Amino acid sequence: MLDNSEKKFKLKDLPSLIVDTYKAWDKANPWRLSAVVAYYAVLSLPALLIIIINIVGSIWGTEIVQGRLTSEISTALGSNAAEAIETIIAETQNKEENLISTIIGIGTLLFGATGVFYQLKLSLNEMWHIKPNPNANFWKLVTDRARSFAFILVIGFLLLVSFIVTAGISALNEYIRKVFPDILIYIAYILDFTVSIGIITVLFALMFRYMPDAKIRWKTVWIGALITAVLFVIGKSLLGFYFGEANPGSTYGAAGTIVLILLWVSYSCLILFFGAEFTYIYAKRYGHKITPSYVALEDNNTNSEQPSKSIKS
């Protein structure tokens, strides 16, 4: 049963929602937030990839998973960047260490891999006008890191699902090629786009639901996650085309790979934060409350900066 303060979404409201989202997104300084996350992404990337490769590889096969990831990185950043990242992974995995060094290495690996998700959490809190509770203790930091590690497991699981679905689509394509050879390319494109949208929507929904220190309804989460996923898939294609044609990292020589990673993560985060802001604006306008959890407080200083009078708290 709907609350009296709730309103129903109408398609004619979409343009004003987009406008209000852009104003709030621009006011939140997403370029700075994206730069922070990109910096931590560079530090976290080797550890993050190693954990995902080992987790998914235990089921699918390490070499197959590493090959698929390298292919995806090559598509997004170019072959040179993919080769550099592959070398980093190989060097990290081939080290021979004693027990103490191994234990320290595992701890460093986990801490490093969770860094980018922890920064994403802080950024989403800022986008949604939530600030830390000064009374929160050290245990909150531990649980935040544990939650960040849980998202690594989620990514590993979704990656595994993606591999399985892709394998199924490949088998289906073989059948379609024999029966309907002329329309195969269109069917394959539609299936690939649909699978990408579905998996990425689930990932963003989980991020919006569980990453910030906030309570938000699933109804709101799914709408925001779907919008973000569509923008992300389109943006990923455009970024891949841009990096392939312009090759912006070539100017920086040996540091080109790092620059490409920074650019890709920064641009991707801009899309993610736009989706998060859309979710926030949508929730406020239609009476779906986003409230701080017990470990956080609402940042009342930012409420007066809402971009439109049509958004009600």
From TrEMBL:
Its source organism is Cellulophaga algicola (strain DSM 14237 / IC166 / ACAM 630)
One GO CC annotation, please?
plasma membrane
Protein name listed in UniProt = Ribonuclease BN
Where is it located?
A: Cell membrane
The keyword Cell membrane appears for this protein? yes
Name the membrane topology term.
Answer: Multi-pass membrane protein
Matching entries from Pfam families are given as: Virul_fac_BrkB
Q: List keywords of the entry alphabetically.
A: Cell membrane, Membrane, Transmembrane, Transmembrane helix
Entry-linked InterPro entries: Virul_fac_BrkB (IPR017039)
TM helices/strands, residue ranges: 37-60, 99-120, 149-171, 183-208, 220-243, 255-283
